[in-house]
Amino acid sequence: MKILLRPVQISDLFALQLLEKKVFGENFSNSVFEVSKKTEDWLGYIAIIKIKFFGFYKHKIIGFIKMSNILDEFHIDSFGVDPLFRRISIGELLLVVSLIKSIEIGSKICTLEVRKSNFNAQNLYSKYKFQTKGIRKNYYSINRENALIMTAQDINSDEYLRFLFKQIKKMNLEYTTQSCYYYKIPSATVILRRIISLFNNRFG
Ligand SMILES: CC(C)(COP(=O)(O)OP(=O)(O)OC[C@H]1O[C@@H](n2cnc3c(N)ncnc32)[C@H](O)[C@@H]1OP(=O)(O)O)[C@@H](O)C(=O)NCCC(=O)NCCS
Questions:
Q1: N- to C-terminal Cα separation, the chain
Q2: Domain count, the chain
């Protein structure tokens, strides 16, 4: 099974707005992609899977990350993976390719807000050396939950770059052209991860 990671194009925005609702469920308020239509100072990556359906191939967007860049600071505005395709490294891949892109354009710091209760996302950010730097009280319009401010410092340092490239090698991420990447994922891994996540959801 192959996953393509490529920069967002204007023609993706409608599908992305639908995916945002699916990803955030009851926590969904406003689409970041709707607002983004008007601006040019943002970047985004999507993950696309090619699925065979009754003999025809269909391309489906299964994850996204949207970021903006202010001077040497890179901010992750929104990020998510289709619930049906979680726990197969799509989120990690999107984070890695966007970090690489941000370093390419001169960022030194990456920062974001995450719900205090969102341990899954916090685990992913910690894996990529983000640390909690503060709290934004009542940050989310829905349920007024606090946000943790998580930051990765010196992402352009040799040490961090070495770490990123080690992760890329481990994941067999393949660079193609024009900032696009391919990720080959063994079907057995997908099936196994899906069984584990269904089991966790039911009994965890
Ligand atoms: C957070 C999210 C993007 C992770 O995407 P994903 O593709 O499922 O994650 P991955 O398979 O790439 O996992 C990468 C790492 O994330 C962490 N993680 C992800 N899901 C986890 C879970 N259910 N339990 C514990 N850790 C989890 C782990 O550290 C994992 O590394 P590991 O495989 O070495 O344990 C996804 O759960 C999601 O879309 N959540 C809803 C939206 C959201 O929370 N967005 C972030 C807003 S700040």
A1: 28
A2: 1
Q: Where are the alpha helices (DSSP H) in 90-157?
A: 90-104, 119-127
The DSSP symbol for 93 reads H
- Please choose from 85, 89, 110, 120 the residue to mutate so as to test ligand 1's pocket, defined by most ligand atoms within 8 A of CB: 120
pLDDT higher than 60, residue 100: yes
Query: What pTM, to 2 d.p., does this model score?
Result: 0.92
Tens of pLDDT, residue by residue over 75-88, are: 999 999 999 899 98
- Diameter over CA atoms, the chain: 51
Domain coverage including residue 12: 2-203
- pLDDT at res. 34: 75
CATH number at residue 134: 3.40.630.30
- Ligand 1 contact via 120 beta carbon (within 6 Å): yes
**pLDDT confidence band for 58 (50 / 70 / 90):** confident
Nearest-atom index, ligand 1, CA of 81: 39
